[in-house]
Design goal:
Elements (H helix, E strand, L loop, with lengths): L4 E6 L1 H19 L4 E7 L3 H8 L6 E9 L12 E4 L9 E9 L3 H11 L5 E9 L12 E5 L5 E2 L15 E4 L10
Parallel strand pairs: 2-3, 2-5, 5-6, 6-7
Antiparallel strand pairs: 1-9, 3-4, 8-9
Cofactor: Mg(2+)
Pfam family, one: Pribosyltran
Organism: Candidatus Solincola sediminis
Protein backbone atom coordinates (compact mmCIF):
# COMPACT_ATOMS: atom_id res chain seq x y z
CA UNK A 1 0.00 0.00 0.00
CA UNK A 2 2.76 2.43 0.96
CA UNK A 3 4.15 1.89 -2.56
CA UNK A 4 1.20 3.97 -3.81
CA UNK A 5 2.29 6.96 -1.77
CA UNK A 6 5.18 9.22 -2.58
CA UNK A 7 6.47 9.21 0.94
CA UNK A 8 6.75 12.10 3.24
CA UNK A 9 5.90 15.46 1.81
CA UNK A 10 5.83 16.17 5.54
CA UNK A 11 7.46 13.69 7.89
CA UNK A 12 5.91 12.71 11.17
CA UNK A 13 8.73 14.57 12.98
CA UNK A 14 8.08 17.79 11.05
CA UNK A 15 4.34 17.53 11.76
CA UNK A 16 4.99 16.86 15.42
CA UNK A 17 7.36 19.83 15.83
CA UNK A 18 4.92 22.22 14.15
CA UNK A 19 1.96 20.86 16.11
CA UNK A 20 3.78 21.54 19.37
CA UNK A 21 4.53 25.12 18.24
CA UNK A 22 0.88 25.69 17.33
CA UNK A 23 -0.28 24.23 20.65
CA UNK A 24 1.98 26.60 22.56
CA UNK A 25 0.61 29.60 20.63
CA UNK A 26 -2.92 28.41 21.47
CA UNK A 27 -1.95 27.91 25.13
CA UNK A 28 -0.63 31.48 25.23
CA UNK A 29 -3.67 33.00 23.46
CA UNK A 30 -6.47 31.19 25.31
CA UNK A 31 -5.23 31.33 28.90
CA UNK A 32 -8.15 32.21 31.20
CA UNK A 33 -10.76 31.59 28.49
CA UNK A 34 -13.36 28.83 28.08
CA UNK A 35 -11.87 26.93 25.13
CA UNK A 36 -13.81 24.39 23.04
CA UNK A 37 -11.89 22.62 20.29
CA UNK A 38 -14.11 21.25 17.52
CA UNK A 39 -12.56 18.76 15.11
CA UNK A 40 -13.98 18.41 11.62
CA UNK A 41 -14.41 14.68 10.96
CA UNK A 42 -13.08 12.53 9.72
CA UNK A 43 -9.82 14.07 8.55
CA UNK A 44 -8.97 16.14 11.65
CA UNK A 45 -9.13 13.27 14.15
CA UNK A 46 -5.37 12.59 14.15
CA UNK A 47 -4.30 16.25 14.22
CA UNK A 48 -6.80 17.15 16.94
CA UNK A 49 -5.64 14.24 19.11
CA UNK A 50 -2.01 15.32 18.82
CA UNK A 51 -2.71 19.05 19.13
CA UNK A 52 -4.85 18.97 22.28
CA UNK A 53 -2.30 16.84 24.13
CA UNK A 54 0.11 19.78 23.90
CA UNK A 55 -2.37 22.51 24.89
CA UNK A 56 -1.69 23.22 28.54
CA UNK A 57 -5.12 24.59 29.42
CA UNK A 58 -8.50 23.22 30.49
CA UNK A 59 -10.54 22.64 27.33
CA UNK A 60 -13.52 20.78 25.92
CA UNK A 61 -13.46 18.63 22.79
CA UNK A 62 -16.23 18.00 20.31
CA UNK A 63 -16.57 16.96 16.69
CA UNK A 64 -18.64 17.90 13.69
CA UNK A 65 -18.97 15.88 10.50
CA UNK A 66 -19.95 17.35 7.17
CA UNK A 67 -20.78 15.78 3.86
CA UNK A 68 -18.52 16.98 1.10
CA UNK A 69 -20.35 19.00 -1.49
CA UNK A 70 -20.87 17.55 -4.94
CA UNK A 71 -19.64 19.33 -8.07
CA UNK A 72 -22.95 21.16 -8.47
CA UNK A 73 -22.86 22.64 -4.97
CA UNK A 74 -19.21 23.73 -4.88
CA UNK A 75 -19.91 27.24 -6.07
CA UNK A 76 -22.73 27.76 -3.57
CA UNK A 77 -20.61 26.38 -0.73
CA UNK A 78 -23.49 24.32 0.62
CA UNK A 79 -22.22 21.70 3.03
CA UNK A 80 -24.51 19.40 5.00
CA UNK A 81 -23.81 18.70 8.67
CA UNK A 82 -24.13 14.95 9.19
CA UNK A 83 -22.99 14.95 12.82
CA UNK A 84 -23.49 18.07 14.88
CA UNK A 85 -21.60 19.03 18.04
CA UNK A 86 -23.10 17.95 21.37
CA UNK A 87 -21.70 20.77 23.54
CA UNK A 88 -23.36 24.09 24.26
CA UNK A 89 -20.88 26.64 22.92
CA UNK A 90 -22.69 29.85 23.97
CA UNK A 91 -20.21 32.25 25.54
CA UNK A 92 -17.26 29.95 24.85
CA UNK A 93 -14.23 30.39 22.61
CA UNK A 94 -14.43 27.94 19.71
CA UNK A 95 -11.33 26.70 17.96
CA UNK A 96 -12.28 24.82 14.80
CA UNK A 97 -9.61 22.22 14.05
CA UNK A 98 -9.24 21.16 10.41
CA UNK A 99 -6.85 18.86 8.61
CA UNK A 100 -6.62 20.95 5.45
CA UNK A 101 -8.16 24.13 4.03
CA UNK A 102 -8.60 23.95 0.27
CA UNK A 103 -11.40 26.06 -1.26
CA UNK A 104 -12.39 27.25 2.24
CA UNK A 105 -16.07 26.53 1.58
CA UNK A 106 -16.43 23.92 4.34
CA UNK A 107 -15.01 26.23 7.00
CA UNK A 108 -16.93 29.28 5.78
CA UNK A 109 -20.15 27.32 6.17
CA UNK A 110 -19.22 25.87 9.57
CA UNK A 111 -18.06 29.22 10.95
CA UNK A 112 -21.43 30.71 9.92
CA UNK A 113 -23.40 27.91 11.59
CA UNK A 114 -21.35 28.07 14.81
CA UNK A 115 -21.50 31.88 15.06
CA UNK A 116 -25.30 31.63 15.26
CA UNK A 117 -24.92 29.72 18.54
CA UNK A 118 -23.54 32.68 20.47
CA UNK A 119 -19.90 31.76 21.09
CA UNK A 120 -17.49 34.38 22.43
CA UNK A 121 -15.25 33.79 19.39
CA UNK A 122 -14.63 31.38 16.51
CA UNK A 123 -11.10 30.82 15.18
CA UNK A 124 -9.54 28.23 12.89
CA UNK A 125 -6.55 25.98 13.40
CA UNK A 126 -5.56 23.94 10.32
CA UNK A 127 -2.55 21.72 9.90
CA UNK A 128 -2.43 22.18 6.14
CA UNK A 129 -3.39 25.05 3.89
CA UNK A 130 -3.62 25.23 0.10
CA UNK A 131 -3.77 29.01 -0.56
CA UNK A 132 -3.75 28.69 -4.36
CA UNK A 133 -7.08 26.83 -4.49
CA UNK A 134 -8.96 29.11 -2.10
CA UNK A 135 -12.39 30.31 -3.33
CA UNK A 136 -13.54 32.20 -0.25
CA UNK A 137 -11.51 34.17 2.24
CA UNK A 138 -10.87 32.35 5.51
CA UNK A 139 -8.77 33.70 8.34
CA UNK A 140 -6.75 30.66 9.42
CA UNK A 141 -5.35 31.94 12.71
CA UNK A 142 -3.17 28.89 13.42
CA UNK A 143 -1.70 27.37 10.28
CA UNK A 144 0.70 24.44 10.13
CA UNK A 145 2.05 24.32 6.59
CA UNK A 146 1.22 25.92 3.24
CA UNK A 147 1.08 23.36 0.41
CA UNK A 148 0.91 23.63 -3.37
CA UNK A 149 -2.33 22.45 -5.00
CA UNK A 150 -1.64 18.71 -4.66
CA UNK A 151 -3.93 15.98 -3.38
CA UNK A 152 -2.34 14.73 -0.19
CA UNK A 153 -3.09 11.76 2.06
CA UNK A 154 -2.06 10.48 5.47
CA UNK A 155 -2.19 11.87 9.02
CA UNK A 156 -6.00 11.68 8.93
CA UNK A 157 -6.44 12.53 5.25
CA UNK A 158 -7.87 9.85 2.98
CA UNK A 159 -8.35 8.84 -0.58
CA UNK A 160 -11.55 6.76 -0.76
CA UNK A 161 -11.21 6.14 3.01
CA UNK A 162 -7.67 4.75 2.73
CA UNK A 163 -4.35 6.11 4.02
CA UNK A 164 -5.79 8.00 7.04
CA UNK A 165 -3.56 6.07 9.44
CA UNK A 166 -0.24 6.96 7.80
CA UNK A 167 1.88 8.92 10.29
CA UNK A 168 3.16 11.29 7.60
CA UNK A 169 1.58 13.42 4.82
CA UNK A 170 2.33 12.19 1.32
CA UNK A 171 1.20 12.56 -2.27
CA UNK A 172 -0.37 9.67 -4.15
CA UNK A 173 1.84 8.61 -7.03
CA UNK A 174 -0.98 8.97 -9.54
CA UNK A 175 -1.39 12.61 -8.46
CA UNK A 176 2.28 13.55 -8.61
CA UNK A 177 2.82 16.45 -10.95
CA UNK A 178 -0.94 16.95 -11.24
CA UNK A 179 -2.89 20.01 -10.19
CA UNK A 180 -5.92 17.94 -9.23
CA UNK A 181 -7.00 18.52 -5.68
CA UNK A 182 -9.92 16.16 -5.56
P1 LIG B 1 -12.58 22.90 1.37
O1 LIG B 1 -14.01 23.06 1.75
O2 LIG B 1 -11.63 23.83 2.06
O3 LIG B 1 -12.41 22.91 -0.13
O4 LIG B 1 -12.18 21.43 1.70
C1 LIG B 1 -11.87 20.96 2.93
C2 LIG B 1 -11.95 19.45 2.90
O5 LIG B 1 -11.65 18.89 1.60
C3 LIG B 1 -10.90 18.88 3.82
O6 LIG B 1 -11.38 18.81 5.14
C4 LIG B 1 -10.64 17.53 3.21
O7 LIG B 1 -11.61 16.62 3.67
C5 LIG B 1 -10.85 17.74 1.71
N1 LIG B 1 -9.57 17.96 1.04
C6 LIG B 1 -9.13 19.11 0.49
N2 LIG B 1 -7.89 18.95 -0.03
C7 LIG B 1 -7.54 17.66 0.23
C8 LIG B 1 -6.37 16.89 -0.06
O8 LIG B 1 -5.36 17.34 -0.62
N3 LIG B 1 -6.39 15.59 0.36
C9 LIG B 1 -7.47 15.02 0.99
N4 LIG B 1 -7.36 13.75 1.34
N5 LIG B 1 -8.59 15.73 1.27
C10 LIG B 1 -8.62 17.04 0.89
Amino acid sequence: MRDEVEKSLLSSDEISRRTIEMASEITRDYRGRDLVTIGVLKGAFVFLADLVRHIELPLEIDFVAVSSYGKDTVSSGVVRIIKDIDLDVAGKHILLVEDIVDTGLTLKYLIGVLRERGPASVEVCALLNKPETRKVEIDVKYKGFDLPPLFVVGYGLDCAERFRHLPYVGVLKEFEGSNETR
